[in-house]
Amino acid sequence: MVIDERARWFGFWLLDRKNGGVIRKAYDEIRYAYRNGTSVAETEEKIAKLIDHARRTTKFYSNIPEGAGLNDMPIVNKDTYRADYDAFLSSEYLNEKGSRVMSTSGSTGTPLQIVQNLDKVRHDTADGIFFGAMADYYIGMKMGFIRVWVHNVKKSPLRLLAENMIMVDSSDLGEKALTEMLDMIRKKKVRCLLGYASALAEMSRFIETHDVDTSKFSVTSIIPISESMPTVVKEKLKEQFHCPVQQWYSNEENGIMGIQGRDNDVYYIDSENFYFEILKLDSDEPAEPGEMGRIVITDLRNYAMPIIRYDNGDLAVYRRVEKNGRFKLYLTELYGRRSDTIYDTAGNALTPFIITNNLWDVEGVRQYRFLQDTKDTYTLELNGDPDVMDEEDILGRILPYFGEGAKINIVYVDEIPVLNSGKRKYIENRCPEYTGR
């Protein structure tokens, strides 16, 4: 770290020590669990304590009997919270000093606000420090945060100065905007790029197609968030900036929950602060290791608005390693939102990387979106140069994955629409049999 960054790093920990060292304690717990695993017995105690708290202090869980276990608790989702929002708020934390409200992006619907108590905020900070360090980002390093900076998430000039952060707006990813973005990142000597995976992918594609010289950049760490980044894009960014690219598993509701390995796509999950269940697609029974299932999250730290058995819409395959009463949890495959999961004609789920990895280097393609319309028909929207794009080559790359009778229609568009959050959705399932619409 440079002198200014080192001063910020030590300054942060000195201030934390002055305040009782609570973040350092949480950080050490996360680090110990990463190295040695999380205690099974202590996790069971945390879950029992959280359920008892929710039962005693929230309206929604008030009818849960004393001594109920996790399997006795209902599975909830965003719609559950929206339908009876106040019923989830704990009466003990309504006016707690230091608590905060986090808002989901509202990419495909109404944003959801989640209240987090001070202890939860501190543990989320510790997660950010630990998983940042794993990706070669340290507190105080100059960071460029790439996202759509709408009014409710913008940071004040004083906050930006304190965090050594630059707000990099990704609402416009045209050639002029990307040129200016890269110039700013280079001139301001940004060391860490944190941002939407889709925006970083657009940046990487621009660097590739315009032969941008990245040797003068100061970037030493890249952390994609919010969306799954295809392996091929991750490898390209590593090659372009000569630094690690490790994706966080995170959301606004819960915070940072895990990180992708440096040399693989497997996610390590912070089981000190979160308890993950991977449940079957068609029932609430546990999925088997190696079987794709629904991610259901219990946030062990949020007491202001208990999040218990929250189905966040993501799908994953897991592996759990248990030894001497301690365990580690890994997501060996992460499919993202169920609405982003596509199926072949036989009804088998396919990873969206089948599309993203195969279309990454197609000449003439600027943007794309793949839609599943019915059980055997699909639409591929392409934004690019029709005179350069080779339809036969494109179909030859992806059609074999979809099985007998699959039909892919290619449609040329001027732009792939942006969601409310500023993200672009590249894969979408519109088949009523899968979406229930």
Descriptive labels:
single chain, 437 residues, alpha/beta, GMP Synthetase, Chain A, domain 3, 4-stranded parallel beta sheet, 20 strands
List the helices and strands and how they pair.
Blueprint: H1 3-18, H2 22-36, E1 38-39, H3 40-57, H4 78-83, E2 100-103, E3 113-116, H5 118-134, E4 143-147, H6 157-163, E5 165-169, H7 175-187, E6 192-196, H8 197-209, E7 221-225, H9 231-241, E8 248-251, E9 255-260, E10 267-269, E11 274-279, E12 293-299, E13 310-323, E14 326-337, E15 342-343, E16 349-350, H10 353-359, E17 365-372, E18 377-384, H11 391-398, E19 407-412, E20 427-429, H12 432-435
Parallel strand pairs: 4-5, 4-6, 6-7, 17-20, 18-19
Antiparallel strand pairs: 1-14, 2-3, 8-9, 9-10, 10-14, 11-12, 12-13, 13-14, 15-16, 17-18
Explain briefly what this protein structure is.
With 437 residues, this protein is of the alpha/beta class.
Protein model, in words:
- This protein is an alpha/beta fold.
- The protein has a domain at 341-435: GMP Synthetase, Chain A, domain 3, CATH 3.30.300.
- The chain contains 12 helices and 20 strands.
- It has helices at residues 3-18, 22-36, 40-57, 78-83, 118-134, 157-163, 175-187, 197-209, 231-241, 353-359, 391-398, 432-435; strands at 38-39, 100-103, 113-116, 143-147, 165-169, 192-196, 221-225, 248-251, 255-260, 267-269, 274-279, 293-299, 310-323, 326-337, 342-343, 349-350, 365-372, 377-384, 407-412, 427-429.
- Helix 2 (22-36) packs across helix 5 (118-134) and helix 8 packs across helix 9 (231-241).
- The longest helix has 18 residues, at 40-57.
- The radius of gyration is 22 Å and the shape is globular.
- The mean pLDDT is 89.
